[in-house]
Design a protein that fits this description.
Bound molecules: zinc ion
Helix content: 25-40%
Shape: globular
Number of domains: 1
Number of strands: 8
Radius of gyration: 17 Å
Order of helices and strands: HHEEEEHEHEHEEHHH
Strand content: 5-15%
CATH superfamily: Class II aldolase/adducin N-terminal domain
Distance between the termini: 36 Å
CATH class: Alpha Beta
């Protein structure tokens, strides 16, 4: 059911070895602007310059506070290899551990967004999968999985195994009783998917008041997805959101 879809998507974007920190910072600002902040919950990561290394924010740093210099380079045991952190904090969020399971399982994944935003959390609390019922949801057509059981705080390896298995070959995952995960071939794709999961979760809840979300035709959804998930569209969207985030902060929103 997923083979053709994900195979065609995977060919669209080559892996990049460039430094992702500027893009990660803009991702953090965008997600803050989109209401994804939830206490200490939520982590953003991207692959580092060497195998088995990853960039992540210090524990407790709000997305809104992220700066290009904030990122910590960690190894696959969560040891900090590089980076000074922010506000004297130089330890990664222990929940970053489950990201590492996804990276191990998925060589194509370069960046992961995991957040607990309000609407996706409402669907998660109701244990309801996301319905692709609107054009803006079609980027997720046949590419968002659903994990119906909450395995507990994602700080141990068991949770990582379950989450990586639930994601399978897809690029997005709604975790019942928990939140969302977007696994991108780059920071722009992970951000793009995370933002639209939350917006479409909000739409699904709103639509429930007027008869309920009705899935769009699968063939049309697939064609729309294959257009909207091109690098050109995702990068242009990410860049516009990043410029908006930069303007709001009196900062440079351009990530590259
Ligand atoms: Zn979480």
């Amino acid at each position: 059911m997923t083979g053709v879809a994900t195979a065609s998507l995977r060919q669209a974007t080559p892996a990049t070895a460039s430094d992702p920190r500027a893009a990660l910072t803009r991702c953090a600002w965008i997600l803050a602007d989109e209401g994804h902040e939830s206490g200490l919950a939520g982590q953003l990561t991207a692959r580092g310059p060497r195998d088995g290394t990853f960039w992540t924010l210090p524990l407790g740093l709000a997305f809104d506070e992220a700066d290009d210099a904030s990122w910590l380079l960690i190894d696959d045991a969560l040891n900090v290899l590089e980076g000074v952190g922010s506000y004297g904090i130089r330890e990664p969020n222990p929940a970053t551990r489950f990201h590492l399971w996804v990276y191990r399982a998925r060589a194509d994944v370069q960046a992961i967004v995991h957040t607990h935003p309000p609407a996706a959390s409402a669907l998660a609390a109701a244990a309801q999968p996301l319905v692709v019922a609107h054009m803006d949801a079609t980027p997720l057509f046949d590419d968002i999985a659903f994990l119906p059981d909450w395995p507990g705080l994602p700080t141990a390896d068991r949770e990582g195994e379950l989450i990586a298995a639930a994601l399978g070959t897809k690029h997005a995952l709604l975790l019942a009783h928990h939140g969302l995960l977007a696994a991108g071939r780059g920071v722009a794709e992970a951000t793009f998917l995370a933002v639209f999961i939350e917006r479409m979760a909000r739409l699904q809840i709103d639509a429930a008041k007027v008869g309920g979300a009705r899935a769009v035709d699968g063939g049309e959804a697939r064609r729309a997805r294959d257009f909207l998930r091109t690098d050109r569209i995702m990068n242009a969207t990410f860049d516009a959101w990043a410029r908006r985030a930069g303007r709001r902060r009196g900062r440079d929103g351009v990530a590259s």
